[in-house]
Design the sequence.
C-alpha cells in the first residue's frame, strides 16, 4: 500500500483527488494539507510514501515544503502539481529533491500511475512539458552547478550509457529511449540503474538535471 498526502490550498481539489485516488486499491490517502506547514505536521504523525505538492500555497509554499521534507524525510517522494506559469517554482522544487511534476488537470489514471512510478524509485517527467522545464534548467545555469558527480565516475560510463544519459537529458521516457537506441525497455532500466549507481545519484530527476548541465560533455562522449 502506498501512503499518500495531498497538499493543495483548494479544498475542492484536495477532496476530489482523495476520492478518486482512494478508489485505487494500491493507494491510501493518509491525509490532506492546505499548506506546507500542515504537510510537515502530518509527517510527524504518519508514515508517508508520496506527497502530491501544490506549488502556490499560503503560509508555506510547495518549494520550501519540498526542501524541508527532503531534508528531514529523505525517503518520502514529492510530486509537484504545477501550471505552465510556475516555471521558477518548478525549477526550485526539482532542485530541492522533487521526483517529478504533473500539470494540474492530469487524468486520474496518469496521476495514479505517476504515484506508483515515483514510489518504485522512478521519476515522473511528463513528456508534454519536459522540454519546457529542461530549457528552464539551461537558462538558470550558473557557475555553481546544481548536481555534481565525481569526475572519476565518468570514466566508468560506457558509450551506450552515455547515449542513455543524453536521451534522459532530452526528457525522454524509457520507452522512447528504447526505441531511439534499439534496446528493450528492460535493458534501458538496467542501464539507468547502473548509471545512477556509478554517479551516486538519488534518482532519474537528478540525472536529468546533470545531463542538461553537461550537454557539451555528453556530446563529446557520445561522439555525435
Sequence:
Amino acid at each position: 500500500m502506498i501512503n499518500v498526502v495531498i497538499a493543495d490550498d483548494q479544498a475542492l481539489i484536495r477532496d476530489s483527488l482523495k476520492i478518486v485516488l482512494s478508489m485505487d486499491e494500491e493507494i491510501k490517502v493518509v491525509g490532506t494539507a492546505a499548506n506546507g506547514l500542515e504537510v510537515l505536521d502530518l509527517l510527524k504523525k504518519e508514515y508517508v510514501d508520496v506527497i502530491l505538492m501544490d506549488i502556490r500555497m499560503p503560509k508555506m509554499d510547495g518549494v520550501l515544503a519540498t526542501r524541508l521534507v527532503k531534508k528531514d524525510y529523505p525517503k518520502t517522494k514529492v510530486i509537484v502539481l504545477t501550471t505552465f506559469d510556475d516555471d521558477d517554482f518548478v525549477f526550485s522544487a526539482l532542485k530541492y529533491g522533487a521526483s517529478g511534476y504533473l500539470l494540474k488537470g492530469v487524468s486520474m489514471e496518469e496521476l495514479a500511475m505517476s504515484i506508483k512510478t515515483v514510489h518504485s524509485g522512478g521519476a515522473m517527467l511528463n513528456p508534454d512539458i519536459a522540454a519546457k522545464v529542461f530549457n528552464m534548467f539551461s537558462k538558470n545555469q550558473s557557475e555553481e552547478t546544481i548536481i555534481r558527480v565525481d569526475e572519476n565516475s565518468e570514466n566508468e560510463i560506457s558509450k551506450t550509457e552515455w547515449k542513455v544519459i543524453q536521451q534522459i537529458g532530452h526528457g525522454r521516457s524509457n520507452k522512447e529511449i528504447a526505441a531511439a537506441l534499439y534496446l528493450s525497455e528492460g535493458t534501458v532500466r538496467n542501464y539507468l540503474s547502473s548509471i545512477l549507481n556509478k554517479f551516486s545519484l538519488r534518482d532519474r530527476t537528478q540525472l536529468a538535471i546533470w545531463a542538461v548541465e553537461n550537454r557539451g560533455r555528453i556530446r563529446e562522449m557520445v561522439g555525435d
Q: What stands out?
A: The chain has two domains: 2-139, 151-222. Strands lie at 2-7, 27-33, 50-54, 77-82, 100-103, 124-125. Residues 2-139 form a domain with the Rossmann fold fold (CATH 3.40.50.2300).
